[in-house]
Amino acid sequence: MNRLQGKVAIVTGAAGGQGSAEAKLFAAEGAKVVLTDVSEAGVLKVAAEIQELGGEALALVHDVSSEQEWKNVISQTVNHFGALNILVNNAGIYAIEGIEDTSLEVWEKLQEINTRSVFLGMKYAIPEMRKAGGGSIINVSSIFGIIGSGRATAYTATKGAIRSLSKTVAVELAKDEIRVNSIHPGIIATPMIKTLLEDPVQLKLRVEATPLPRLGKPEDIAYGALFLASDESSFVTGTELIIDGGYSAR
Predict the structure, then answer these.
(1) In angstroms, rounded to a whole number, what is the distance separating the alpha carbons of residues 56 and 11?
(2) What pLDDT is recorded for position 93?
(3) Model pTM?
(4) At what angle are helices 218-229 and 17-28 packed, to 10 degrees?
(5) 3 in a domain, yes or no?
(6) Secondary structure of residue 133 in the 3-state scheme
(7) Of the candidates 75, 161, 72, the residue with the CA atom closest to the CA atom of residue 112
(8) Measured distance CA(228)–CA(250) in Å, rounded
(9) In which region does residue 241 sit, left (phi positive, over 0), alpha (psi from -120 to 50) or beta (all else)?
(10) Under 8 Å between Cβ of 83 and 90
């Protein structure tokens, strides 16, 4: 308990899945949490659940691809809680198509939501973290930002970009005590992979391909994010934390 006591965190994509698990765990560990998502009903529900347990939470509707909305989220965070110490760029979308079947429209949409959002989030969070004397930025990528998936061309491109961007910014900001790391989940049981979860054959294949023979849970990722957000990782920056049950180690 209290691993994030006194800290203020923003978690994007917090209406469900990994984002809601991260927000709830951060709040349980003492952080004041700003939850953002395009789903107003979803993010209000998660914020209410945190508040019912005695935590402090602010829910904001947020299009992460919008520069102006990022400015508003950062401003509202600081106005409401007084500072910003942690940013989790969790929001993202998925597309399964291979390169020949990927339209330019899909390619650009994933770049906007998955990659532009990380750039904008960091850009506008950094000045406030600098005022606070440092901070931790956690960018959620994927194991397919490190290894090839053989499909999902647009998605994997965005996740690879997040990995490289995180390393570059980590080096740039080290002098300011702002740490930047990426998390690389494997196959996690969230609404994003609803189609896979409903296909028993494909689901069995994925589980069998994972040395720890199960799918990941949102909480598995949340605990990794908690470590990177906390002072326990004060000497960790510019690295990638793979949480995939051994999938990418085969």
Answers:
(1) 13
(2) 95
(3) 0.95
(4) 50
(5) no
(6) coil
(7) 161
(8) 25
(9) beta
(10) no
Q: What angle do CA 57, 186, 147 make, to 5 degrees?
A: 130
Range of the domain at 100: 8-185+217-241
Tell me how many domains the chain contains. Answer: 1
C-beta separation of 163 from 141 below 8 A:
yes
> b/e map of 31-67 (b: 16 or more CB within 10 Å)?
bbbbbbbbeeebbbebbeebeeeebbbbbbbbbbbee
Tens digits of residue pLDDT in 204-244:
888 888 999 888 999 999 999 999 999 999 999 999 999 99
Residue 144 inside a domain? The answer is yes
In one-letter notation, the amino acid at residue 222 is A
CB 43 within 8 A of CB 19: no
Which CATH number does the domain housing residue 129 bear?
A: 3.40.50.720
What residues are annotated to the active site? 155
Q: Which amino acid is at 137?
A: I
95 assigned to some structural domain: yes
Give the tens place of pLDDT for each residue, 55-112.
999 999 999 999 999 999 999 999 999 999 999 999 999 998 999 999 999 999 999 9
Does a structural domain hold residue 85? yes
pLDDT at 205: 81
